[in-house]
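Dear colleague,

Thank you for sharing your sequence with our group. We've completed the structure prediction you requested, and as agreed, I am returning the results in plain text so they can be pasted directly into your records. Please verify that the sequence below matches your submission; if there's any discrepancy, let me know and we will rerun it promptly.
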Amino acid sequence: MNSSELRSTLALAGIFGLRMLGLFLLLPVFSIHAHGLPGGEHALWVGLTLGIFNIIQACFYIPLGRLSDRIGRKPVVLWGLSLFVAGALICAAKDDLLWIAIGRGVMGAGAVSAAISAWVADLTREQVRTRAMALVGGSIALSFALSLVIAAPIYRLISLSGIFMVLAVLGVMAMFVTYFVLPSSRPEAQAQQASLKAVFLRPELVRLNAGVFVLHATQVAMFLVVPRLLVQAGLPLASHWQVYLPVVLLSFFVMAPILIFGEKKQKLRTILLFAIVLLLIAEVLFTYTVSVLSIAIALLIYFVGFNLLEALQPSLVSRFAKESKGTALGIYNTTQSIGLFMGAVIGGYLMDSHGDLSVFVMGAVLLVCWLIIAWSMRELPAKVVVSSDPTAKI
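Please find the predicted structure tokens below.
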């Protein structure tokens, strides 16, 4: 990437990671804090307070993604970040389960992930777009790992209200970066936009949407069980970050050369199938893990495949929907949120009714189905060689 592409991609990755930090930072501490609040003794209400973020996001991804195609990415991202800040301030102002749920819903309404991914596609050439998407997708894994490390210390220092105030301040900083650092991208030509139905039913995009559903459904279901496995292997909950953080960081070093090879040799379809197989191998290994080391190895294999897919799939969506990137990525992110929700629900049900290991069996079955669906993917669009200045419009 040239300097303009790298600067824009890092800025957008930071904004994307901030939103995911708003989701992940609560996971290690919220259930403990909520137990002392009115209604916090009911796990259902606590779960809904956490999950409303994703549910509301799923409702707004497509409208905001399509709007970004029409009026440009910057105003939509600024609007979404303003809602993120407002929601965080609502949560910080009231230490009450209902008001926290309302604030989380407002935060989720600023669903700008599709607009951010489309903006990355606008500001990068096709030759480097997958690497750019890898940086943005990697912000998800880094946000998750970072939250596991810093959530408990920050909570002990400034409590839950303080965490929300920190998120609000970071949101304001992201708004300044969006306004002053990132270049504006022109709206997509209205006459060239495909209809919502046409984008939704495009076979290549249907495959990718099915893939992101399976990817995130199996991810959230898996992390219902993995902490239990680590505890059973003798690693206390407070020390789990010592496994997660090195595994996530090492996975990036392993993933990077695979991704670069796939781009240079134009073998992205092969890399995508390889990544699905890695996830399948990890799910199988989890059913046999008995030690912290074996769990860490399975996690490493999993995160290499996960990070490859987090980079490849949004990039492919933007290439299969050039005229309506925001709309297509809105549908993609909506499917992702539904996958997160369904994975948690179905995974929890399977754990209660059939035991922990049944979650990995479900994941393996879903991944086999995804592999079959992805196998018939047609040849990818040829890359278009354009000016090194991605902001230039012809």
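Summary note from our side: The domain at 1-187 is CATH 1.20.1250.20 (Growth Hormone; Chain: A;).

Kind regards,
the structure core
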